[in-house]
Amino acid sequence: MSEAELHFETRGRVALVTLARPQALNALTYHMLAEIRRLVATAEADPEVTAICFTGEGRGFCSGIDAQVLRGSVERGAPGAAAAADGPRDPPGMFSYLPLVSKPVISAVNGVAAGGGFILAMMSDLRFGSENASFTTIFSKRGLIAEHGASWLLPRLVGPARALDLFTSSRRIDAEEALRLGLLDRLVPADGLIDAVVEYAEHLASQISPRAIAVIKSQVYRHLSEAMGPALEDSQRLMDEQLKHPDATEGAMALIERRAPKFQPWTGGA
Fold first, then answer.
1. How confident is the model at residue 1 (pLDDT cuts 50, 70, 90)?
2. With CB atoms counted within 10 Å of each terminal CB, which end of the chain scores lower, N or C?
């Protein structure tokens, strides 16, 4: 992979991954996908990182799989992008591992998010967008179906009817409509997009237990497919465990002593 295709840096408590092929609207190659997977694992294990952020260089966020790569896959019958990039224990689908990452994953959408770029944004926990952000699923225009778990997650974000509209029409929606639909969580000026993510992460780092964030994220995604009874039982079990953890004591003492909490760092795992 050329270094020009991807940039990685730390800004405050944020591990920032920038897709850097602006001439191709940051279209993805298989090597980029594999490197993104590695960088996410590195950031998750770093105790100084509170959140992981994706953004794009130039006027695009990500236009999906590079057209030449896609053509080669069709002609050669090569494995899909997810199979080439994800770890052996990851669920199938591009970026399907992101909901399993124990730290918040945020997409800072600075331009068009299409196809695989749409999937990257959707699989992130939060989506911050500038006024230049736009989204299109694009799959149906390419003779494809709702790929990579999109049919499971998008209806849960925007509702079944709106998801069907976005999937079947492949129409492009702008930032304002994405915010109204619930696809975007924050709409901020373009020149303050990354700063907004950094500020959010700094708040988490100063006030919130990293272990609690990890457990809550796992709860939310797992409980989406569970009935209320099992979800309540699971939550009670997790609460019993959390009450025995030093973070629970620290949280209570910080409140009593009227000071900022000092929670234990988090590097993934239990």
1. very low
2. C
